[in-house]
From TrEMBL:
This is 4-coumarate--CoA ligase. GO terms for cellular component: peroxisome. It comes from the Eukaryota. It comes from Eutrema salsugineum (Saltwater cress). InterPro entries: AMP-bd_C, AMP-bd_C_sf, AMP-binding_CS, AMP-dep_synth/lig_dom, ANL_N_sf. The lineage of its organism: Eukaryota, Viridiplantae, Streptophyta, Embryophyta, Tracheophyta. Signal peptide: none annotated. The chain crosses the membrane at residues 248-271. Its cofactor is Mg(2+). GO terms for molecular function: ATP binding; CoA-ligase activity. Residues 463-538 form the AMP-binding enzyme C-terminal domain. Belongs to the ATP-dependent AMP-binding enzyme family. It holds the Pfam family AMP-binding_C.
Length: 552
């Protein structure tokens, strides 16, 4: 396969070897090995992954059942499922296919099959309510959905044809295939598929917006291939055994574990759903070497360390990779104190960057406590003053902008949001306040965007505020992040009641909990005479956050 190396800094650039900063264009460049990308423009990401040489044997293991899928069986299954989708169901390039499923060894089979056809993969959070899922369906208009018999009722109102993971009782849905049977069916031999180009859309993952509903992030085969090329260049050992606890509907789980590890030839043990002791038992049983976790799980491991170490043999575990939210210095130090033989490596990325951003890749780098890591290979960064737009240098805090081949194309059918987030030069405005130090390490200070991060899940306050405003007793409302040791943050509501109302905290909490996924629930309510607003009518959340946290 022909390759091309990513263009580095322009000739005129004098890049500081220590920080990676170029004064002439105020851009930070990655200090990692340059990224090598395939030269062929007609290449789908599935073909790129399947072309990677490795000597790995077992691709996936189901933690609960012990069922194993070898690499040869995986690729045979991908070929058969793609053939069935194309010839029997009529899935074509550009068609959207939805996955609503807990983690399973079948998710990677579906992902790779769908993308090999040039069809577009979209995923839904299994915790979402019927209402939340139907909004996503009306936006993305999928032609087909993969799900389990347990989750099929959530799709009953949509009338989308379903492929079920296995045979099971279902009512009121149209089933057009059983995945376990499709994986055994011999291909038709008619390989008539449309040509897929690097610019074609591969996935549409929904990212919570700060205002209104979540938006479909459009990523191309080229975007994903760039991230796969990064994985391959990192030279992981094939004997590594990863334990996947993060959801595969999320960019972290999907890109790392449904795709990246397949390119590497490493084994992934898949937990259907996260439970701390199930995870520890799986580490012991399968001799897992690497765990991928969100920060709240790291906190749970610290808090339960004595019991965990007494009950489970974790001697195989050598590394925890942590993403989804910033990892504080206190948490890092606390973890290393309890688990001195396990390294903890932080990372930073967004759905819109497809895994690119910054990461820690060595024990030496991990000693820079609180850092998210060095910029990923092929990534450029700027630190921009959010007030003036001035581009700044090392050790100055501003909004982080990122650029590189993994940056998504934009938001589905939302030009306004795309133009607001990705400028004409291809810079992604992350909405995160950051600085890059003299050694090129990225530190995340705070979020400019107002998303609440609950256990690694993103909760948009505006969505909860809109629901609160539908209550007959509520005049006005604002939702803010409230700090919490275990969850990171949780949604807290400030509510202005109508004069004659005696609405209680419990009534407000119950009203919302019936309408949203568990992670979006409001967990604390304070009543206030009026919600503070700016001259232009924007809610002054910072004032409310100060008020809420002043009593801590």
């Amino acid at each position: 396969m022909a390759h091309r190396e990513m263009a580095g800094p322009p000739q005129s650039c004098l890049v500081d070897s220590r920080s990676g900063f170029c004064r002439s264009n105020s851009t930070f460049y990655s200090k990692r090995t340059p990224l090598t990308l395939p030269a062929n423009p007609s290449l789908d990401v599935t073909t790129f992954i399947s072309s990677q040489p490795h000597r790995g044997t077992t691709a996936f293991i189901d933690a609960a059942t012990g069922h194993r899928l070898s690499f040869s069986d995986l690729w045979r299954a991908v070929d058969r499922v793609a053939d069935y989708l194309h010839h029997e169901i009529g899935i074509r390039k550009g068609d959207v296919v939805l996955i609503l499923s807990p983690n399973s060894i079948h998710v990677p089979v579906v992902c790779l099959s769908v993308m090999s056809l040039g069809a577009v993969l979209t995923t839904a959070n299994t915790l979402n309510t019927v209402g939340e899922i139907s909004k996503q369906i009306s936006d993305s208009n999928p032609k087909l959905a993969f799900t389990t018999p347990d989750l099929a009722p959530k799709l009953a109102d949509s009338a989308i044809p379903l492929v079920l993971e296995r045979v099971g009782p279902t009512r009121g849905v149209k089933v057009v295939g059983i995945l376990s049977e499709m994986m055994k069916k011999e291909p038709s031999g008619k390989r008539v598929r449309e040509r897929v180009n690097q610019d074609d859309t591969a996935v549409m993952l929904y990212s919570s917006g700060t205002t209104g509903p979540s938006k479909g992030v459009i990523s191309s085969h080229g975007n994903l291939t760039a991230q796969m090329a990064r994985f391959v260049s990192d030279k992981w050992k094939e004997e590594e055994i990863f334990l996947c606890t993060v959801p595969m509907f999320h960019t972290f789980g999907l890109i790392c574990f449904a795709m990246g590890t397949v390119a590497l030839g490493t084994t992934v043990v898949i937990l259907r759903r996260f439970e701390l002791h199930d995870m520890m038992a799986a580490v012991e049983k399968y001799r897992a070497t690497i765990l991928a976790l969100a920060p709240p799980v790291v906190v749970a491991m610290i808090n339960g360390a004595d019991l965990i170490k007494a009950k489970y043999d974790l001697s195989s575990l050598r590394m925890v990779r942590c993403g989804g939210a910033p990892l504080s210095k206190e948490v890092t130090e606390g973890f290393l104190e309890k688990y001195p033989t396990v390294d903890i490596f932080a990372g930073y990325a967004l759905t819109e960057s497809n895994g690119a951003g910054a990461s820690i890749e060595s024990v030496e780098e991990s000693r820079r406590y609180g850092a998210a890591g060095l910029l990923s290979s092929g990534v450029e960064a700027r630190i921009v003053d959010p007030e003036t737009g001035r581009v700044m240098g090392a050790n100055q805090t501003g909004e982080l902008w990122l650029k590189g081949p993994s940056i998504a194309k934009g938001y589905f059918r939302n030009k306004e949001a795309t133009d607001e987030t990705i400028n004409s030069e291809g810079w992604l405005k992350t909405g995160d306040l950051c600085y890059i130090d003299d050694d090129g390490f990225l530190f995340v200070v705070d979020r400019l965007k107002e998303l609440i991060k609950y256990k690694g899940y993103q909760v948009p306050p505006a969505e909860l505020e809109a629901l609160l405003m539908t209550h007959p007793d509520i005049l006005d409302a604002a939702v803010i992040p409230f700090p919490d040791k275990e969850a990171g943050q949780y949604p807290m509501a400030y509510v202005a009641r109508k004069l004659e109302s005696n609405l209680s905290e419990k009534q407000v909490i119950d009203f919302i909990s019936k309408q949203v996924a568990p992670y979006k629930k409001i967990r604390k309510v304070a009543f206030i005479n009026s919600i503070p607003k700016s001259v232009s009518g924007k809610t002054l959340r910072k004032d409310l956050i100060k008020l809420a946290t002043s009593k801590l």
